[in-house]
Amino acid sequence: MPTPSDVSAEIDALGHSLDQLAETVRRLTEENRSLRHSQEQLASERAGLVARNEQARQRVEAMIQRLKALESTP
């Protein structure tokens, strides 16, 4: 049969484990929030780069068409 001091030590150990678990949950929650924020920023940056790439592609195609038109005029 466990002694009262054994039970008290076990309760203290469980309390310490719970404190560590709570800290881990807090840290992971903060890390998750930070990673989600970074992901949103990167997605936004990517969308901007895709749009700029499309604009550049359209300008290059327009230049090619103008050059072809100049080549075909006498």
In words, what does this structure look like?
The protein is mainly α and 74 residues long. 93% of the residues lie in helices and 0% in strands. The radius of gyration is 32 Å and the shape is rod-shaped. The mean pLDDT is 95.
Low-confidence stretches: none
Q: What's the pLDDT, averaged over the residues?
A: 95
Sheet of most strands: none
Strand content: under 5%
Let me know the number of strands: 0
What oligomeric state is this? single chain
What is the first-to-last residue Cα distance? 108 Å
Molecular shape: rod-shaped
Structural class: mainly alpha
Helical coverage, percent range: over 70%
List keywords for this structure.
93% helix, 74 residues, mainly alpha
What does this entry show, briefly?
With 74 residues, the chain is mainly α. It contains one helix and no strands.
Give a topology summary:
Layout: H1 4-72
